[in-house]
Amino acid sequence: MPQGFTVTAEAELDKAERLLDRAHRGQLVDWWLPSNRHGARTPNFDIASTCIIDGKRGLLLIEAKAYDQELIKEAAGRHLPKDASEDRKASHPTIGLAIESARAGLTAATGHPWDISRDSHYQMSNRFAWSWKLTQLGIPVCLVYLGFLCADEMADKGDPVLTAEAWTRLVLSHSASLFPPEIWDQAWTVNGVRFAPLIATAMQPLQRGHT
Questions:
Q1: Residue 25 falls within a domain, yes or no?
Q2: Which of 14, 28, 41, 140 is deepest in the core (most CB within 10 A)?
Q3: Containing domain of residue 96, as a range?
Q4: Predicted structure pTM score
């Protein structure tokens, strides 16, 4: 998910019937949301697909960016404004607990300190938290932070990513307060299955007729 240019919806994993069975989806939503708010939105991944990792069916999760501000602006935490929706208010405590459980689990699994949090760098924190939860369900995960190179059509929004080295520096800078740099580009064993957080780049020229 998405599926080409016809089905463009990004994947909320607790609702992604094509990717996960009912039992796993139920465990994910129970972990993230209060029981009376299971229809609320959950983090959506730019690209999500099944894959094979070490001979076992797993998930490939991709967070894609094309210019620097797409990542830099995500340094904020998940705030709770006065006019927040009832769904947001109800899920705020459970999301905090879910990410904390992942923080503790990743610290124990990797032997490195982790500081993912609901209240800072929320997007990257929830990407790693969901990856950890999937491993707890026995599902190996490859989580890719993907930089699209030379997307000049996005220059009015921020500086396009020009090289793989620049993208790596940007991601490492963004994640520095959350976990050490050596976490990236290795395959860790977490909850008995593989978890591989990767930094990658791709060149995808814009095709005529697609914007």
A1: yes
A2: 140
A3: 11-202
A4: 0.92
